[in-house]
Amino acid sequence: MSKTLRLFHRIRGGIYPPRNKHFTRERPILKIEAPERVVIPLQQHIGTPCKPRVKKGDEVGVGTLIGDAEAYVSSPVHSSVSGKVAQVAPQPHPLGGDKLAVIIENDGLYTPDPSLRAPYPWREMPPEEIRKAVRSAGIVGMGGATFPTHVKLSPPSDSPIDTVIINGSECEPYLTSDFRLLVEEADLVVEGLNIIMKAVGAGKGIVAIADKKIEAIENVEATARGTGIEVFPLKTRYPAGAEKVLITNVLGREVPSGGLPMNVGVVVNNVGTSHAMAHYFAAGLPLVERVVTVNGSAVVNPSNLMIPLGTSFSAAVEACGGFREPPGKVIMGGPMMGLAQYTLDVPVIKGTSGILALSVEEAGYRIPTEPICIRCGRCVDACPMNLVPTYLASYTHAGKWDELRRFNILDCIECGCCTYVCPTKNPIVQLVKTGKAELARMKRREDKRKEELAAVDAEGGGDDGE
Amino acid sequence: MFRYVLSLGLRLTLVCLVAAIGLGLTYSAVESRIVEMELEERGKAGKEVLAPLDAKPQEIDEGELAALQEKFPELVSVFEGIDENGNLVGYAIVVKGKGYSFFTMAVGVDMEGKVSGIEVVQHEETPGLGGSVVENSEFLYQFIDGGPEDFVLGEGIDAKTGATMTSRGLTDGVNYTLEIWRDITLKGGQ
Amino acid sequence: MGDRKSATGELTNGLVRSNPLLVLMVGLCSALAVSTKVENCIFMGVAVIFVLVCSNVIISLIRRFIPDQVRIPIFIVIIASFVTIVDLTLKGYFKPVYDRLGVWIPLIVVNCIILARAEGYASQNRVRYAAMDGIGIGLGYTAVILIMAVFRELMGTGQIVLFEKTIINFGTSSMPVIFIMFPGAFITFALLAAALQWYQDRRKPEEGGGS
Amino acid sequence: MDWSLVWKALLALAGAGILLGVVLAMASRRFHVEVDPRVEEILRALPGSNCGACGLPGCEAAAEAVAVGDAPPTICKAGGPDVASEVGKIMGIDVESVIPMVAHIHCRGGRSVSPIKAIYQGVNSCRAAETAMGGGKACPFGCIGLEDCADVCPVNAIAFDDDGIRRVNIRKCTGCGLCADICPRDLIEMVPRYQATFVRCKSRYTGKKALQLCKVACIGCKRCEKVCPHDAIHVEYGFATIDYGKCTNCGECVQECPTGSIQLWVEREDHPEGGEFVLPRKRKKDKKKGSEEKGGSSEETAKAPMEPGDIGSGDTVKEGESPDEQGEGGFDTGSKSSQAC
Amino acid sequence: MTENKLVVSTSPHIRDTANTRKIMLQVIIALAPATIYALVIFGLPAFWVLLASISGALLGEFAMQKGRRLPVTLSDGSAFLTGLLLALTLPPELPWWIALVGGLTATILGKQIFGGLGHNIFNPALVGRAVVFVSWASYMTTSYFKSAAIGIANTSAHQHIVDLVSGATPLAAMKAVYDPAGATFVPQGLNASNYYKPLLLANPWGCIGEVSALLLILGGLYLIATRIIDWRIPLTYVGTVAVLTAFTGRDPLFYTLSGGLLIGAIYMATDYTTSPLSSRGKVIFGLGLGLMTFLLRFWSNNPEGVMFSILFMNGMVPLIDRYILPRKYGKLRCAEEGG
Amino acid sequence: MAPDMNEAWRYFLLFFGAVLVYNFILIRFIGLCPFFGISNRLETSIGMGISVVFVMVMATSVSWVVWNYVLDPLGVGDFLYIPAFILIIASLVQFVEMVIKKTSPPLYKAMGIYLPLITTNCAVLAAVIESVRPGFFKMNIAYNHTFPEALVFTIGVSLGFALVLILFSAMRERLDLAPVPKFFCGIPIAFIAAALYSLAFMGFTGMFGL
Ligand SMILES: Cc1cc2nc3c(=O)[nH]c(=O)nc-3n(C[C@H](O)[C@H](O)[C@H](O)COP(=O)(O)O)c2cc1C
Ligand SMILES: Cc1cc2nc3c(=O)[nH]c(=O)nc-3n(C[C@H](O)[C@H](O)[C@H](O)COP(=O)(O)O)c2cc1C
Ligand SMILES: Cc1cc2nc3c(=O)[nH]c(=O)nc-3n(C[C@H](O)[C@H](O)[C@H](O)COP(=O)(O)O)c2cc1C
Ligand SMILES: Cc1cc2nc3c(=O)[nH]c(=O)nc-3n(C[C@H](O)[C@H](O)[C@H](O)CO)c2cc1C
Ligand code: SF4
Ligand code: SF4
Ligand code: SF4
Ligand code: SF4
Ligand code: FES
What we know:
The structure holds 6 protein chains of 6 kinds.
Chain B lengths: L1 H49 L5 E4 L2 H10 L3 E8 L5 E11 L3 E9 L4 E9 L6 H5 L2 H5 L10 E2 L2 E2 L6 H26 L1
Parallel strand pairs in B: 6-7
Antiparallel strand pairs in B: 1-2, 2-3, 3-4, 4-5
Chain C lengths: L6 H11 L10 H7 L3 H24 L9 H23 L1 H7 L2 H19 L4 H31 L1 E4 L2 E5 L12 H22 L8
Antiparallel strand pairs in C: 1-2
Helix pairs in contact in C: 1-7, 3-4, 3-6, 3-7, 4-5, 4-6
Chain F lengths: L1 H20 L10 H7 L3 H33 L2 H27 L1 H7 L3 H5 L2 H11 L14 H30 L10 H15 L9
The structure holds flavin mononucleotide (3 copies), riboflavin, iron/sulfur cluster (4 copies) and FE2/S2 (inorganic) cluster.
């Protein structure tokens, strides 16, 4: 039955942008050294920011805890180099704004923190312990959203997880870091999948890989032979890797609106996350480095690099031979969902899957300064979430918030398909983001107003305060 | 409370009373005039189409008209044409017809069944198209002195280009009156 | 709201500042339907002015006698009575016009109720002002439908025929007939309304570009 | 004369009058619904424009809320103090003490003083730019300058000069607070109408770093805090904030501020915006230079921190400025001109 | 400009190469064969109509945009396409000034007054056509080709009617065959199947664009293949008409090939701006169009009803777009829940 | 059977004609004020549409009775029909308003605000006059002013009114987002849209011989 469902129940939308993976596809992961100074932001995840645990002048080693928070939805931060803390101060952050970061002078020795030790072999650990270990390793989702993985691995008892999917689709153009991991270290990825399955008590594990990545599929199939882990070849199409799309295409299940994968008994994790997990359980080193694809027409020598966190973008590009020409746009992540940076001084963080430097020419196309739409309907057809993107843009622009809710703006995954296909280059995603932010602000304001009213009531008088 | 309601009601009633008296008086003052106008209005078309016969229209009685209307639903009214000597010299027949939209037309027919006059009393044809046809005596002249055989569009009657529907509607209307005329005269003959 | 000062003020007020058609947006139906012919508009305008003035005067005369609760029914009766008088008069003396205006004559009652009601709210006006106001509003209505009718009849037929006399004749039969048809009525009114917005905008230049 | 008709008419109309009167009278008693008469009254006192600034669906809803006690009589900000006091009267609450509020924008960093960090491409709106690294201007806390506040203002009270410095015309501002709600950087605050001393910066950076990003920033030096005789100004989160309840507008802090971040608002009858900011050179709260020209607040007078050389070349790519290879795409970008009604 | 500053914008940072102009160009290309063929058959008069209509459309667009001080976007091709489509729906021997007024009305009243490309509610070309149709109905119904049939499609029976009545299109002739009571003339010995060949290959008795159904269909297939238009609207529209006509005992093939149905279904009902956005909406739109055309063709005063159908359904689009949305993702809950 | 079919067909045509061919708003120009006043939001239009159907049907029923059993037999119809009908409509509206206010507050919330608007809507009065009083009916179809006919006609008219009202409000909501030329913002553009839509409705002229 499930096979037929898989055939019939597929996500309709999606696009086929030029994939541009050939520059780095064949390039093995190269480990690079950290620069003189690393800048490690105290927030590299979704959730409560960490409080610094070190101060200026402290000596740190590789893996030393430098930031942590009490909150559950949070993830600690560790030093990626050994050396001395130079400063704790706000620094430009690749996600925007200036955020508190620990700046460390690298002594170039990479002395591990003495307190580090390999954890118990995970097979003997109860799920609870595994989650604790995952948290203390600072592991967060490396697919881009940087959601703390230990939270994901703790499903409430009323939503049992039956399937874990490793998301190896890497549907973004230009990016090849997950692909390289699957080719070079498939064993660790499969190991990580096993850990996750154990942690959530799932019986089924699937590695979903785009069908064009034949080496990766063969490699993982070979590694996983006999373990009961399945490899699922995905049709190569953007956004095959988006969580909801992935689940529907692989399992024929639809995550309810506003819901989470766990509501349909699934956990999805990125290849990098799985790899980091296995690496931690094997070597005991917390998450202090990650694979980053440095790519784009402005880069001399596009490569896949293993980069210590906190390394600046400029150092990473330097390691690839520098710029061929002054870049027009530098993006953290892929071209479809990545964030454009205004400076190269931002550090690589846990969620940096790629650094993309586009030439001035590629960056120079004009974006309309307000929504323009000829109602061609392409965005509607492209949207994997079956929304009406053009309305979301127009209604945001017109400030019609009720209409936005009516048209389910909150279901938008900001994949960018609509904007990609639009013949008038309507900046839909930007307006959707704006609209979502505005709705959130309104909600906050509303809550505040209610609170205030309640407070007035409590005081027991219709007084004339401000 | 009751007195209050009573006072409201009384005042309202008083206004109604005054209005009723005023209106009643006005109506009775203009009533005869209205009836007259209506008669004149209806007779006017008859008068015009019977003018070539030097006859005055005189409405046939209601029972007769009702009987005819039973048979010819589009019939509006029939007038007898009486000349100075009191002789019946023809009929004016008023019918409704449909071209592009509708019209009401009066056709004068003499005792031989020849069309003595045609007048479109009221119409909603498109101005400039059908409108210019119903107001265009050139087209209507084609019927004068024709009959009692039916007219055929395209043979003897030339349709106006661009307003064939109106032309056809008018032709059909004339033929319809001729049919009514036959019915009346047949009965009269018996 | 309107500061009621002088009788002439009342008059111009109805003509422009609170023009029933363009500003208050009442009486649209008859305006659009009747303005196919200038002739119709003259009769319609006179009818509306008559009803408005008479009912305004009467209402103003008996305003102290009208209890607030039954204000509306009394207005209705008074206005309907005058409309009926117009109705009967036209029927008796101008039968062709009566036939052409058809249902629009009885429908005058509806517009006038709205206008008179606003009157009733506004304040206890003295008879003189009330009459002037009636004339003003009535003239405002008439002026607009006349403008519309002149435009529509000319554009649509190339000529203006008044009481069976051709006043203006372009001498062509190829005018865009659409102007005397339904869409033409809407378009003409849209143009007028746009012109009014343009006029108002020009009169207060303070708010320049902006949103 | 046909009198019988008159009689019949009398019968019919008077009958109808009586019947309707009785039926309606009875119905009105039978179906009477008690409504708070105050709702009507309040509704009449409100402006009736249903602007929604109060956060309720319309004036009627607001009137109901006030009558029931769910909302204070001052709920209608658009109506200003007059309406508030009238509503207060209806509700039997004294609202004489209500001070009218106006909007104040806590940033004065124009393009010329806060260098640009990047070329922003995208929707012409501050809130939208906030989703793209905050647009092009260097200061991450300052005004983005894409005029969302001006667009939302129902009375066009906010104007921008060529340098991108915003001013609120306090004569026009009704205190509705819509602009304060919309600013993505929370720069706009509703302040008492007669407050005169303002900190015109909200940069969380201190010292040199703050100055790097904007030459007129508050550097958090706390000198104002020390000189204030009324304990009304405090530096928190890197910038100074005035407690308007305590501030007496004595101007001590204005004199003290090294970057000119604190300024005095001077009312001017003749000024089209109701007044302007001045930065007194000496201990004189006088009005120097009544410079009327646009953007000519007298800021330059003190420590003119501006260098003519770096007048920012458009930090945002607006229409027409960028390579026109999309001209073929055939859309217009005529920014504000083609907005919906 | 600002040297060496990076560009910031929101994702996505790459875009498809499609743009408005390319799309319009494709449609013009699809229409080119039919247009050229029509010019060959109708000759100079049709050329003047074409020229007047297109210049009217361009002029209207230009004047409005200049007047509003907006950037002039003639180069996007949409006004040109509007003018072209309008011309294709006009009779070949129409006086040029009517075509000019049509073109002007199309872009001014049909498009720019609503705010320009993407904002109009009614199909501009059809607004232009409807306005001149109503304004100069006599020209519009009589300016058809009057000379003898052309070699490839000689229908002597129809030729006879053309000689008899001005402006007799095949549809009008068949209306007379089926409903002699309501018709203006009764053609003798005429049969719907007589028309198949001329309608497909060369039909001189109709509007400029109706000369060859085959070329129109080929153009349509090209547009569908290049994904410029969605197949749903043409298919449901033509399908509904065919089914309903067959159901009432008429000849479905004749009624799908004749009149403005194909040009309307393929090129006008599919106009982006005035058709629904969602696939489901498009199907409903097509069904509504089919029903309206069926009703209007057989029971209204005019033999043809495509123009009024499309305008009528255009008015429904905002409502359709509001209530007929794509199926929302996340409604279907766990299909496999049982296991 | 056959006559019944004919009768049914006649009723269908009466209905069809009232909804489309003789659409009150676009073809007959009746009821324009509330139409342009209310048609800018879809929700309101739906509420108004329902209210109009309701009031029109009730008003016609009552007026039919009054005309046929009071005014006409007394011979005073010719000069009392205007005050009589408008009074009936006004009191009916007021009565309905009071009743639903008392019995169903939610319904009152939905419909109540539109009721006063309906009194001053000439569509209701026109529907009553045309369907009840001889001499005003427009369509080209046999019509004898019987009760069922009046009812079918009124339902058709009111549904036609509601239909166009609702279509139009959806249209105007879209127009709200459009950069319409400044002086055409608001009312003028609504009239332009109405013009074009009435152009589309002209296609129905003479349909089914109506
Ligand atoms: C506010 C928030 C709460 C979340 N809560 C959970 C959770 O309780 N369990 C879980 O498995 N994932 C949770 N997630 C993670 C999401 O399922 C998802 O994996 C994450 O947003 C990254 O998805 P993406 O990379 O597709 O954007 C949460 C995400 C967010 C933003
Ligand atoms: C449009 C879109 C595309 C995505 N593409 C990928 C992808 O190619 N690979 C991937 O691992 N995650 C991708 N993600 C993130 C996944 O949805 C999901 O969050 C992630 O696989 C969860 O794993 P993590 O928590 O380990 O990051 C994408 C998300 C979105 C919204
Ligand atoms: C708005 C409009 C109004 C029309 N008015 C009329 C009319 O009044 N009379 C008429 O015969 N045809 C009228 N027509 C119908 C066409 O002109 C019809 O096709 C024509 O009568 C047939 O052409 P023919 O007369 O040249 O054979 C009208 C058409 C339209 C679109
Ligand atoms: C497939 C397609 C069909 C079109 N059809 C029309 C049409 O029927 N009438 C028209 O004026 N423009 C048409 N256009 C051009 C353009 O979309 C039109 O000017 C817009 O409706 C104006 O907003 C069409 C464009 C495309 C891509
Ligand atoms: S960005 Fe949002 S609206 Fe656009 S295609 Fe993706 S999910 Fe749909
Ligand atoms: S793809 Fe662009 S032009 Fe097409 S409907 Fe969507 S927003 Fe409009
Ligand atoms: S939006 Fe305008 S009126 Fe309202 S507070 Fe701001 S400046 Fe004042
Ligand atoms: S909304 Fe805020 S950021 Fe935008 S211009 Fe106004 S004050 Fe500046
Ligand atoms: S509704 Fe106002 S005049 Fe008809």
